[in-house]
Amino acid sequence: MKWALVGASRIAAGYMIRAFRAQPGGAVTAVLSADAQRGAAYAETHGIDRFFDDLDTLLAEADCDAVYISTTNEKHCEQALAAIAAGKHVLCEKPLAMSVADAVRMVRAAEQAGVVFATNHHLRNAGSHLAIRELVSSGRLGPILSVRVFHAVSLPGALRGWRISDAAAGGGVIPDITVHDADTVRFHLGEDPVEVVAQMTNSGLGHGVEDSAMSIWKMPSGAMVSTHESFTHPFAGTGIEIHGTEGSVVARGVMTQDPKGTVTLTDPEGTHDIPYDTHDLYERSMGLFEAAVRGQGRPSADGWDGVKSLAVALAVREAARTGTAQKIDYGV
Ligand code: NDP
To answer: Where is the signal peptide, in residue numbers (predicted)?
Structure first.
């Protein structure tokens, strides 16, 4: 499949270009940057034939079946709508949009146009998370009582731009990381949170946006979920714990872009290491996306998954802002 990049981003350079090219016949044919000079340099560095500084021109002229949108968050909605109107399949970065209503518009537009639309929630493609989901869905843990997500990291220096200082571009740890945690918990438990309470703060990096958040979610089954996201914790490590009546799974170092970390199960027989496959997360995701384009199955995280993760994240921010519990409005 031929891809055009909408956004000359670090995530495309670091992971996605490789994942597109790893598919049979996979190619990246064009890149869009608002700055033509940057676009030219990016195209040359990454061996991309064409660069554009205007989206409509790219959509009209680039030889592509699909576009990957990885601009700053406030641009995703309009760019996705334009690509869908041009008949392109779309992989859009999280958070899909700045509001749930906009995200719903994107997904409905894709449905009406008959194109595949997916959200780049990579974690549900990790071998570690697939193994955890198998433990949960097979009933090995029994009914789930609670989940704890710890996802407090030290934001790398190169990423300390719009994420920590530009609310209008969708900065803040909640749109950046809480959305991933929302998708991951939904993936493991197979249900959508109904209500949240939360706190957020600036603990040294944020300017006009939160750099740290903690929240507690109520699930329809009665399971309780707590999450911690931050940009300011150099040594905390990441992970997820899922506790059931028959067993607990504890996974450390797994809230990451790379296939690493440990997964252990503790049950009445003791504590066991759980083996998992170490495939590339993004390559697996792209394989499923391209299969969906061929009419086989669905992307690992589709548009509605992106709507729901955004709805949870925005409810967390609103709960923290107002100091009140928020019922989650999924916009449907
Ligand atoms: P970047 O900051 O690298 O890129 C965002 C935009 O900033 C680009 O579109 C580009 O504009 C501009 N830009 C990038 N680098 C420079 C530079 N050196 N100088 C000037 N401008 C620059 O963002 P990320 O790659 O970190 O994130 C992009 C999107 O991807 C976000 O929505 C984010 O949430 C998401 N993301 C998702 C991840 C995942 O695993 N799913 C991981 C990381 C990010 P232009 O295109 O106009 O040149």
So the answer is: none
